[in-house]
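Exercise (ungraded).
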Amino acid sequence: MDPLESLSLFFSVMLIIVVLLFMGSMVLYSLPVFEKFGIKFIVGTEWNPRKDIFGALPFVWGTFITSTIAIVFAIVISYGAAYFIVEIAPPKLREFLSSVIELIVAIPSVIIGLWGIFYVVPLVRDFLKPLSSPLSFIPFLSGETSGYSLMAAIIVLTLMITPISTSFIKNALESVPMELKEAAYALGATRYEVFKIVSKPLTRRAALAGIILAYGRAVGETMAVVMVVGNTPNISLSLFNPGYTLAAVIANEFLEATSVLHISALIALGVILFVWSLVVNTLAILIMKRVRIG
Amino acid sequence: MLRFMLKNRKFWLLLILFTVPLILMVSAPQAITLVGQGATFPEPLIMEWIIHFQERYRNITVIYKGTGSGAGVKAILSRTVDFAGSDAPMKLSEWEEANRKFGPIFHIPETMGGVAVVFNIPEVEELNLSGDVLADIYLGRIEYWDDPRIVSLNPGVGLPHERIYVVKRADSSGTTYIFTDYLSHVSAEWASTIGKTKTFSFPDAIGDRGLTGYGNAGVAQIIQQIPYSIGYVEFAYAVKGGLKTVALRNKAGNFVKPSLETIAEAAKYALSLPDPEESWHNVSIVNSPGENTYPIVSFTYILVYKYQDSPKICAALKTWLRWILTEGQQYSERLLYPSLPQNIVEIGLSAVERLQTNTGSEGYKFQLCLIFPLLLASIGIENRSCGECIGEDN
Amino acid sequence: MRPSLRSLTDKFYTAFAIFAFLILIIPLLHIILSIIMNGIKRLDLELITSPPKSLLGSGGGILHAIIGTAMVVFIAMLISLPLGFFVGLYLAEFAKGKFAHFLRTLISVLAGIPSIIAGVFAYTVIVVVYGFSALAGGFALGIIAIPYVARSTEEALGSVPMEIKEAGFSLGIERWKVVLFIDVGYAKSRIIAGFLLALARVIGETAPLLITILGGINIPSNIFSPANAIPLVIYQYALSPFRIWHNIAWSAALLLMIIVLVINLGVRYYLKIKAIY
């Protein structure tokens, strides 16, 4: 083995050791809280650091409801926006528009959070809540709000993850061979029908990978969420209520934890979050791998 | 390959680019860090102090996070901070527990402040209330703004027939402690049911009219946004938030609004304060006598360990505490906190002089205090309290 | 002719697509606009040359955060550039079969870590030993940056045409020399672009810094001292009740956006010049 190969092998092994150390220490530090509460920790509904009672469900719920609703919005908007860029916009503008969409991804999340505090929170409080008050019998839209809410978190999350899935779908749509589309046009299909019958099925896997990746981003997003979600560990159906997510509570409470069990609980939440992201990202990779072959 | 690397000019350039700054950054003098946590009551003043203190003492970094008095006391009890802030003096049981583990904890009054009762009634600018009426509002006995008892205190004011939204702190709060201490003084029923406490639940009679906010800032925000609400916040937050304040009937029978002057009056009646090495759990200056005294006033304290582990931190703490008791006080009034009367400052300074270092030990790292027992706990070893785990064995 | 259902659905979808695009673009424009409009107020010399000053005055600037960001990013690059480069090199040139697959999976795992968790790791490894420090923050950001550097290096080296490699071999040059000088030389611009993009990526990260560098007002001179950073100071000031600090937060956000934009556009321009993009 030549010197360069051994040097790079050395670094690679070092990296492997670091990552394994990382995962091992996280699991180790989360053991105490699992020892005390058992597997019930994951579905525990009460989180009260002052009484040393910890349960993960409020955060699992918050992460789940915000990410899921955000990705649903993202899927709908992405398809439309990608369709627009590829099929409707003049070809010369295409590159520019894609760059603009990708620009959103580059905005640091704390800046989106800053914008969220001063614009989205008042939007939810002064516009969306009054607008939806005739519908407030629906549990999802009930209750008063200060603006800091699951809904505000959903809005910023949607904004942050939609460009990701849009890029993927756009790239996939662009790679559909022109001959196939032209054949469909020649048979008299409308632009939408070409999309529905030709492009969509062919790009299904790539689009799915992009969507899953975007979902993974939503699950792990910390700053923008912690600045607008209200940081209250309760499980409520109403989106106007404040909530909490796994990433947000770790960021907020880690420095102020005053008992060993508290830190263990927070790290345990980190393990849950980590596993969740891992599963999501692995899924995306598996799907993408199939795309390359297929 | 090595020979090539040594001869190549670009390689040397890169090496210098990376290592020179690194060497500079590792060898530069290290700052001493003081970490504190606790009350949001004095937070704006402490922030201002830190800025000016930093300009004067460049090698001491002070960090303070407003997490609420309850969190501050908890931090002191688990030794994860160098000092804590609390509006409420430590409970006797808490103080004795800390005394056993770490030695005496000093209460050093850093400033004083008033708790303003704030309200949001669009139709009304000025409101008078008495202590027992206020207590009954918080007990849920008085439900509407035009209740006869409120009306009788405010002749000629057109109070609307609206439900009263009652706001309290969601977190464990010294501001709540001061407020409930006052309510306990003026309402026998409050004293016997809820008493003075950092956190309480709304009585059932409040029903759905109860709202909660985090920190003084949270409560201020709610009052700003919800009409017909009433709440309590530290005075500076009321002014900054543009909130209307209640004129409260004081012990002498006058209706007094909170202001620098009326709040500062209460300090005159802080006649005897305990020795720093004793518990301060009985200290209270609410409902003080005096024609022009605002009734809901308190000192806010810095809690600090008498026995320090590290000589450097001990010296830095002394410098910081001395500064805020002397030069720091000049910034108080501009931020709407009355400056401390000289006799109180003297008491504080004498306590600061008594800070001393445990001989021998280099110093604990408080983060170690949490992670190390965590490591032990994760492999099944019983975790012991922090003071024992690091200090005494060395 | 009566419009058919098919052409109606086509028109409807077109309208929907335009609508969806607008829903995406309009908030983006609003964000950019509000950053500019709110941030321009305090985008002055004082912002970048002064540490925080009295709340009763202008509030000072964020010099402490700028220096802190420089220190933290420097450490992050110190950790991630060599590590990421050599791992990417190994994957592109030397690795085979199962080990390569394992290594790539590990890189993907690392890439998917939520940034706050990288912060927790840095806390348990660095903060516990050295205290809250720029070193800890740099370590966390370094962990986050490694996959970006590794992937872009691997991709860059993979784009080297076989003819160039073969030409080197045919001249009798040893393997490692071919890789180091010819392959890396060919892909140099792309590799450097990868470095810069990783830098742009971590310069805006906040979550890991929250729990590793402590965020005080001091101007750090030593990596073992606590520090502040531009994204962190934006967070702190945004959450404070002081209007003066809100203004500074917007200006700091504008500054950060400008830095990130300059790096991103600079990289694109650089690649265009090298006739690659």
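Further reading is listed at the end of the chapter. For now, observe: The longest helix of chain A spans residues 3-37. Chain A has a mean pLDDT of 89.
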